[in-house]
Amino acid sequence: MRLILTVDNGLPIQVAAGLIHHKGRYLITRRKPGVHLGGLWEFPGGKREPDESMEDCLRRELREELGIEVTSPIRFEVIRHEYPEQTVELHFFRCALESGHAEARGCDELCWVTPEQLSGYDFPSADRPLIERLQRFQTEP
Fold first, then answer.
1. How far apart are CA 122 and CA 10, in angstroms?
2. Which of 12, 20, 25, 94 lies 20 to 30 angstroms, CA to CA, from 134?
3. What is the C-alpha to C-alpha distance for residues 132 and 30, in angstroms, rounded to an integer?
4. For 71-92, what is each residue's pLDDT tens digit?
5. pTM for the complete prediction?
6. What is the distance between the alpha carbons of residues 68 and 38, in angstroms, rounded to a whole number?
């Protein structure tokens, strides 16, 4: 997920992110150094283009940055977070790997982790409530 924070028109930057699950694990990616929040881990996705649905945005970003196709995204949670530079609105979708083999094309690295392992990775502050929810979600009956 690449955030380019150059325009401050008062509107939040809309980002689609995939909670891509496969065999009990989630795909996470590490942001490249030198970009906003560089070096931190995140759920893959990216910034929505004008007139693009959030679902289409997610599919496009995953195709471009990881070389994968996913099942139909299901809305999971929306988190609005204010960074000093800009406000972001993160639209998280649950989906599964449909085809392709994830490659680190637009990120520094990637890995598949269990919900319990998510706590061991350094994520942006906006993602922390989501990570806690995913860990609870895993243990709910």
1. 28
2. 12
3. 19
4. 999 999 999 988 887 888 999 9
5. 0.86
6. 23
